[in-house]
């Protein structure tokens, strides 16, 4: 189980399929999720400062041992994912997994994962449903009349018996046997029993043999009318084949990984986990997941939910951006009526389903995601339609995508969210709370960098990842440096041969001065100004790219002058391209 975090981040409720909580899901503003998907009683107090996220984001004076703890947190997550290797599981969990597989096999043999076909709703069916109450009333009246007549007959019979007490008793002829239908019923039962016993004796019976076992029993009524054929069919013995996320329920090690998700979501209670799996399979068939994957639902919400990069442990990173719904046109297009709201929910499920299918379900693979929930400009509680749609999506994700979220990171968190988190925290399990990280707007970038390398973080969140062709990719690592208030920092790139130097630099929230120059190694050489020193504001540029062709040994020096009262995060990376003679 995850260690118990001691930070306010743990106070927020996830909106992916997290473990069951002690209360119905929270409002939509919490997250459209996910995803996924996670389970897990103690309540951790929430920090009063909205800028202090859960995992000790703010830097304050602390004892040495607490500082070490913070450094460890920055390198790893507070929630430690459990192993999916069966041989490494505790004995009780192994036993639970075996019992669950046995229940699933029995259900597959009985075809319990197949939903009964729905009857088509036709005018005739509707008419029959409307007539049912009238027919029931007529039957009730007939029964009452019949009971009354029987009572009258009994009274007459009693009177006749008293009147003829002295006479010789007369033997009444026995009542005729029940209708021929009774014999038919007995015959049918006998045929079923014989077929069932023969099937048990020969378990290798083929489908053709089963079809031949359908017996027609000829029945004639008392009037000698045309015989009626009664078909008796033996239930199929071939086990049902069921897949979820493209993987059979009972096949190999990947199947075990999926079953463990459901077991963890239900605290290894086997029967509850089995019920959850069964309901998920039936829901996927009713919702039409396979067909949904092929639907073209447009690109309207591509900026609302998207994937970008991986965290430091290899989890795909999933972004939920609620501020996009401040766009009135997009809001109306998404929630103005039931049809549009249902389309948004189908798109949301489609998006998560595609992401889940890209995961590695091998026991040692990455089978969970990290969710970043951006609450900047979030509509909050005021948008009723958004709240309804998100709650609906949340319920579907919680019920059908368990244990798919390794970490929930909330950024740009407003003050009202902290207040709400205090209210819901007592209803969250410790396991669920251990997956949460909580950061205000001024600490959002630093919080992301704890779990995601800067080159993997989108540029709008303080990182270096950008769309389109760039000189650098997410495979090129970046260096992080903290520049203290009212200080200068120099970055040097030494060059020993003719080459072209390419570099990019970013200071989170800028408001610093930046310049670059080339200093030759030769004493009689001249310094070359590459970038004139200038003040850069956040609105000017996000990432600065420079290129300089060098024909002699020397070094390129970048100078960053931070004259503000706040420390700054500097990101940079470079590469040299040799010049052929």
TrEMBL record:
Keyword Lyase: no
CDD domains in UniProt: SEC14
Alphabetized SMART domains for the sequence: CRAL_TRIO_N (SM01100), SEC14 (SM00516)
Pfam family, one: GOLD_PATL1_C
One GO cellular component term noted in the UniProt record for this chain: membrane
Region described as Disordered: 1-72, 110-185
Residue stretches making up the GOLD domain: 470-576
Chain intervals with Polar residues compositional bias: 1-18
Biased composition annotated in UniProt, kind: Low complexity: 29-38
Biased composition (Basic and acidic residues): 39-54, 128-185
Localization terms from the record: Cytoplasm; Membrane
GO biological process, one term: cell division
Keywords linked to the UniProt accession: Cell cycle, Cell division, Cytoplasm, Lipid-binding, Membrane, Transport
GO MF terms held by the record: lipid binding
Chain ranges of the CRAL-TRIO domain: 294-469
Keyword Transmembrane helix set for record: no
Listed name of the protein: Patellin-3
Origin species: Vicia faba
